């Protein structure tokens, strides 16, 4: 709801207030839309909405207003904490920007040829650091996802590290993806060896193998996929097999310019299997939640909310 965000702007004018009043009173549909926007914002845990008196019962609104005044004294502390939070959140991104040799933005895909002739395809919001000094062939996946098609050279093994997981190859094609909770390696062609920081065992992958390593405890899980379904993002598709809605949203977020929120834990934890169109992330979101009766609320050009209402 554009009106909702416009009225939250600190520099809103009297003209904005007047225009909003005219819009609000023009039809019942406008009033219903305003009510839905306010309730959605509150559901997301935000501060008291502007003009909540237009939709909340008077007694309840006064009680919440009094509670809000009691919190005003802590605003300075809250702003200081917010500044620290911004630094904490921006820190990893700034580190990646500083270290990356190649990176992509939201919804951007990029093909790169490394100096040894190997090819790398970067997914959206992804970054790599390449080190070919002194005869080495080493790439670090800093964020996101990358597909590697390695030029064969028995004398110079090609290694990729990603959040504590190391893949060693001579010449092959495989995909590596980093998520907050795990790292996944999928092998399309050839043979690779996989090791995990702190573990002695080396895992050997054959075509069709998908190995996921937990960042929490280092646990390794294996699955089999059709090689043609691996790294489907290179063709503008996202293939998932028995994963949560929240996990799919995390992937789609890298291809969507708006922030995507799922306030409902019930919806977020539902499991899905499917193929989604990365070229139209809004359509993909709708296809994701519709089987469970969910809806995609277009709150503004910069916000999507997935909910069961």
TrEMBL record:
Domain FecR protein: 101-192
Domain FecR N-terminal: 2-39
Domain of life: Bacteria
PANTHER family listed in its UniProt record: PERIPLASMIC SIGNAL SENSOR AND SIGMA FACTOR ACTIVATOR FECR-RELATED, PROTEIN FECR
Keywords: Kinase, Membrane, Transferase, Transmembrane, Transmembrane helix
Name of the featured protein: Two component sensor histidine kinase FecR/PupR
GO MF annotation list: kinase activity; sigma factor antagonist activity
Transmembrane segments: 72-95
InterPro entries with a match to the protein in the record: FecR, FecR_N, Ferrdict_sens_TM
